[in-house]
Structure prediction request, 346 residues.
Amino acid sequence: MARGFWAEIDDTKTVLVVPPDRHFLDTVSTQTIDIDFGKVTVFAGNYSFWYESSQLALRQAQNQKMKAEEKKKQLEEFIRRFSANVAKSKQTTSRKKMLERLNIEEIRPSSRKYPGIIFQMEREPGNQILEVKDLKAVEEDGTVLFDHIDLNIEKGQKVVFLSHNPKAMTAFFEIINGNRKADGGEYHWGVTITTAYLPLDNTAFFETEYNLVDWLSQYGPGNEVVMKGFLGRMLFKQEEVEKQVKILSGGEKMRCMIARMQLQNANCLILDTPTNHLDLESIQAFNNNLIGFKGNILFSSHDHAFIDSIADRVIELTPKGTIDKLMSYDEYVHDAKLKEQRAGMY
Prediction:
């Protein structure tokens, strides 16, 4: 199975792109080439249209009682809504015309498998989540990653952390997880807060002879059947769960780490660049669940769509303090005054 994307640069040029960045795909692509069911199909529209329409078709296929006329009506309404959104965007109207010409018979469920990622909280968090006072982190070579960091995370907030130096976010997450000593300042977690941490570097977790079942059993209650169920939801086949974890690929290790986090039932998730090594299906499933998660999320990411769909607060860590805004990521990166402020903080 594979996907390709046509990007029409102008009336005379065409570019075929296959990147894992959904925001990039949605920005530049006008058609989606889907290699599935043993054949190649060209869809009008970008990645988001392909994904949403295939999921709608899948739900329709699972509803055996739905009549053909009702299915057709749903699909036509979906196309109209998506076409209206395209028309309002800054992108070319050629996409809208393509969608209007789309035959609804072309919209089919995808055979792709999405991991079952479900984060649940064992305990409802109180009002005090995390308080940070005058926190500082310095590299061994003397580089100041951040300084004068003062912040208070409120209940239910989903916060993306940014910095010109990606080591700053990792240092911050390592400090608040107790894995690194701060070079100044302090932090305090609320008494009701439980955390689950997805670090940038997971190498140490897999330096073992354990197979997948035994490895996952270290991190939560349940027998072998329960652990195999979690691994199955993360798309590991029956014959794969006996593999040693040290030989897993980067993407497989990341899926194991996400399964480990789910077992912890934490009310605050801490994610350091979580989409690394994941394919689009895993990123989409991860993204969807985090949007609906009722607890707190503190995270960093390079994925524009991932950030913009999850974060309701943006905190930038700099050597001269923080820029802290209650706004979407899109608003933050396009704000001219904030661009000028950021320039003066480094």
Q: What stands out?
A: Residues 5-9 have pLDDT under 50 and may be disordered. Residues 68-88 form the longest helix (21 residues).
